[in-house]
C-alpha cells in the first residue's frame, strides 16, 4: 500500500501532477457554471441558447485543442528520454498549429445562422445561439494558443503553473462576466453577447500570461524556446501524425454530445433548458476528470520515454483509482443534494411552482449522472494512458463509433419516430459512457500500447 501511494507513478505523484490540473479544470467549470447561472437569471431563452451555442463552438474548437494539447505527450516523452532541448521545438509546432486554427475558427463564425437553422430551435433561441457562437469563435484561437503554450509546463509535470494561470483568469472572468451580462457599473448590458465577450477576454489573458512565463532567457538555455521558433516540417508532421487522431477523437466525442443536445432541443425549450442544467452540473465531474486524464497521459508518457513499461502500468492504474475517488464524491453530492443545485438555475420570472416540473426532471437526470460518473472515471484514466503511449488511432475510432451508435442514431430514432420522453433518451448517454469504459479497459489489459513511443517512431 505504501508503494502504491509513494512509489514512482504512485497516487501521490498522480495527485501532485493531477490536482493542479483538476483545479485548473475546476476553475474552467466554475466559469462556465456561473456563466449559465447568470444567463439563467437573465432569461430562460439565454439559458437554453447558452449551452447549445457554447457546445457548438467547442465541437469545432475541440479538434484543434486536441491536436495542440497532444504536445503534452511529446514533451513528457522527451523529458523521460532526457532530451529537454527538444521541448521548445515541440511547443512551437503547437503554437504554429494554433495560429492556423484561429483563422479557421474566425471563418466558421460566418456560417453560424446556417448551423443553428439545422437545429430547429425557436427563432428567439436561434438568434441568441448565433450571437454567442460568433463571439466565442472569434476568440477561440486565443484559447487554442493558450492550450498549446500550457504544454510547456504540463508536459514537464509543472502543472501548478497551469493551475495558477487558470485561477487568475477565473478571478478576472467571473466578475467581468456578470458586469457585461447585466450591465453592472460602467459596463453596458449586453446579455448573452456580454457572456461571449467576457469568455474571449479570459482566453486572451491566459495566452498572454503563458507567453510571459515561457519566453525567458533561462528557458531558452534549457529548452530552446527562442532558438526553436521556426516551423520544423518533420516535427510538425510528427505532431500531426499522433495529434490529429487525438483531435478527431475529441471532436467526435463532443459532436456526439452536441448532436444529442440539439435533438433534445426539438422536444421544447424547457427540455433543452433542463438538459443544459444537467450538463452544466456534470461538468463538475467530467472536467476535473479530464485534468486527471491529462495527468495519466503525462505520467505514462514520461515512463515510456524512459522505456519503463512497469512504471507506466502502475501510473495508469493509480490514475484510474484517483479518478474513481473523485467520481464517487461527486456522485454522492448529486444523489444527496440535487434540489439546491438545480435551484441555482431557476430562470427569472419562475416561482417555485412554475419551476417544480423542471426541477423534478433534473433530480431524476442527476441520478443518471451519478451512475455514469463511475464508468466515466475508469474510461478517462485508461484512455489517458493509451494516449500517453501514442495509441491515439484506437481512441479516435472508439470515440467515433461509440458516439454514432449511442449519442447520434438511437436518440434521433427515439425522438423523431417513437416520440420518446426525456428519461428514455438520456439512457443513451449512460450507454455511451459504459461502452467507453468497457472498451478502454479491455484495450489497456491487452497491452499493445506498451510497445508504442511517439518519439521513438518519429526518429526512425
From TrEMBL:
InterPro entries, per the entry: MATE_fam, MATE_MdtK, MdtK-like
GO BP term, pick one: monoatomic ion transport
Signal keyword on record: no
CDD domains linked: MATE_like_7
UniProt superkingdom: Bacteria
Molecular-function annotations in GO: antiporter activity; xenobiotic transmembrane transporter activity
Subcellular location: Cell membrane
Major location (coarse): membrane
Membrane-topology annotation of the record: Multi-pass membrane protein
Record field: transmembrane: 56-75, 95-119, 131-154, 161-184, 190-213, 247-267, 287-304, 316-337, 365-386, 393-414, 420-442
Keyword Membrane: yes
Coiled coil (residue ranges): none
GO CC aspect terms: plasma membrane
Keyword annotations: Antiport, Cell membrane, Ion transport, Membrane, Transmembrane, Transmembrane helix, Transport
NCBIfam families: matE (TIGR00797)
Family annotation (PANTHER family): FMN_FAD EXPORTER YEEO-RELATED (PTHR43298:SF2), MULTIDRUG RESISTANCE PROTEIN NORM-RELATED (PTHR43298)
Protein name: Multidrug-efflux transporter
Organism per entry: Desulfobaculum bizertense DSM 18034
Organism lineage string: Bacteria, Pseudomonadati, Thermodesulfobacteriota, Desulfovibrionia, Desulfovibrionales
Amino acid at each position: 500500500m505504501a508503494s502504491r501511494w509513494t512509489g514512482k507513478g504512485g497516487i501521490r505523484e498522480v495527485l501532485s501532477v493531477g490536482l493542479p490540473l483538476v483545479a485548473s479544470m475546476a476553475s474552467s467549470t466554475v466559469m462556465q457554471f456561473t456563466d449559465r447561472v447568470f444567463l439563467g437569471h437573465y432569461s430562460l431563452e439565454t439559458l437554453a441558447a447558452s449551452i447549445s451555442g457554447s457546445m457548438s463552438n467547442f465541437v469545432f474548437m475541440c479538434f484543434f485543442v486536441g491536436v495542440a494539447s497532444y504536445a503534452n505527450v511529446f514533451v513528457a516523452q522527451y523529458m523521460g528520454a532526457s532530451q529537454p532541448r527538444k521541448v521548445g521545438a515541440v511547443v512551437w509546432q503547437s503554437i504554429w498549429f494554433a495560429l492556423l486554427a484561429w483563422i479557421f475558427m474566425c471563418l466558421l463564425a460566418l456560417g453560424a445562422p446556417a448551423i443553428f437553422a439545422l437545429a430547429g430551435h425557436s427563432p428567439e433561441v436561434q438568434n441568441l445561439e448565433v450571437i454567442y457562437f460568433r463571439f466565442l469563435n472569434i476568440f477561440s484561437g486565443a484559447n487554442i494558443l493558450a492550450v498549446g503554450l500550457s504544454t510547456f509546463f504540463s508536459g514537464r509535470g509543472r502543472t501548478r503553473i497551469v493551475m495558477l494561470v487558470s485561477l487568475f483568469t477565473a478571478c478576472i472572468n467571473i466578475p467581468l462576466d456578470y458586469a457585461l451580462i447585466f450591465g453592472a457599473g460602467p459596463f453596458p448590458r449586453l446579455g448573452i453577447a456580454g457572456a461571449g465577450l467576457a469568455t474571449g477576454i479570459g482566453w486572451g489573458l491566459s495566452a498572454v500570461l503563458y507567453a510571459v512565463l515561457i519566453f525567458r532567457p533561462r528557458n531558452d538555455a534549457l529548452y530552446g524556446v527562442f532558438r526553436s521558433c521556426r516551423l520544423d516540417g518533420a516535427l510538425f508532421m510528427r505532431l500531426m501524425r499522433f495529434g490529429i487522431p487525438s483531435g478527431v477523437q475529441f471532436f467526435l466525442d463532443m459532436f456526439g454530445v452536441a448532436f444529442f443536445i440539439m435533438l433534445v432541443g426539438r422536444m421544447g425549450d424547457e427540455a433543452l433548458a433542463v438538459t443544459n442544467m444537467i450538463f452544466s452540473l456534470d461538468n463538475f465531474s467530467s472536467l476535473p476528470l479530464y485534468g486527471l486524464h491529462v495527468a495519466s497521459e503525462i505520467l505514462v508518457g514520461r515512463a515510456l520515454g524512459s522505456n519503463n513499461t512497469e512504471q507506466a502500468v502502475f501510473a495508469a492504474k493509480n490514475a484510474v483509482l484517483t479518478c474513481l475517488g473523485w467520481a464517487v464524491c461527486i456522485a454522492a453530492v448529486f444523489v444527496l443534494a440535487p434540489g439546491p443545485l438545480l435551484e441555482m438555475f431557476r430562470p427569472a420570472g419562475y416561482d417555485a411552482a412554475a419551476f417544480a416540473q423542471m426541477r423534478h426532471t433534473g433530480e431524476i437526470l442527476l441520478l443518471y449522472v451519478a451512475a455514469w460518473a463511475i464508468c466515466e472515471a475508469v474510461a478517462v484514466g485508461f484512455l489517458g494512458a493509451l494516449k500517453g503511449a501514442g495509441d491515439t488511432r484506437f481512441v479516435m475510432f472508439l470515440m467515433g463509433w461509440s458516439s454514432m451508435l449511442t449519442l447520434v442514431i438511437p436518440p434521433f430514432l427515439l425522438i423523431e419516430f417513437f416520440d420518446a420522453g426525456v428519461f428514455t433518451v438520456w439512457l443513451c448517454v449512460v450507454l455511451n459512457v459504459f461502452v467507453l469504459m468497457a472498451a478502454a479497459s479491455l484495450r489497456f489489459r491487452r497491452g499493445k500500447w506498451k510497445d508504442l513511443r511517439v518519439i521513438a517512431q518519429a526518429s526512425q
